[in-house]
Amino acid sequence: MKQILIGFVFLLTFQTTQAQLFKKEKITYDANQGRGTTDFKFLRWGYFLGINNYDFNFDYNEDLRDIYVDTSPGFSVGLIGNMRINSFLDLRLEPGLFITTRELFYSEQYFQGVDFKESDLSREVKSTYIHVPLLLKISAKRINNFKPFIIGGFSTAINLSSNENNPDDNSKGQFRTTSRPLFYELGFGIDFYLYNFKFTPSIRGLFGMGDELVRDDDPNSPWTSNITRMQTRGVFINFTFQ
């Protein structure tokens, strides 16, 4: 369903973009239906659709085999609020809903001296984030109907699926994470100027700033005792419309 939706977005914009982006003539009344370029507005709005891929980075106490993280693409959707500082700088707020799933696989080394079942070697981590980044967008000078940029900043999230306060832990099959992680983000993209809107594909990296693991009640738990720190890593591919 996620792939179909992204494909539909591409098909919807392809016929319009192919005729407008790759010609030398600069679109004067772009992205605002003939009322003047949207870049000159102090405040402007938009929305984005995207694909995300979340991972975990682990630091360990002992030199055992790494926990393997099986990742799968997730879906992102959200709104954009943009404040113009000058022709090259914008301050941007991008609240959105990010849905993803990761699966952790443990080596049998973690369970030496402990009775375990095959199902104990894996844990599914489902995450539903309300993601709120505050970003600074630094743009180059516009060339015809293109404007490249870099973007970066800090973000927080509310993980609705964290189970941080769940009394059950891994001994009962429940892997827990913190509910309000902090991140920093870095990325780049290109603004494409069209007659009726501005279309922006971008790619961004996400990096956790603190330990996100909620440890099991048993200090010798095979699932959490060897983990010093667990932090989220992620990649976003967003398609923005303004």
From TrEMBL:
Domain (Outer membrane protein beta-barrel) ranges: 33-212
Pfam families noted in UniProt: OMP_b-brl_2
Descriptive protein name: PorT family protein
Alphabetical list of InterPro entries matching this protein: Beta-barrel_OMP_2
Originating organism: Hyunsoonleella flava
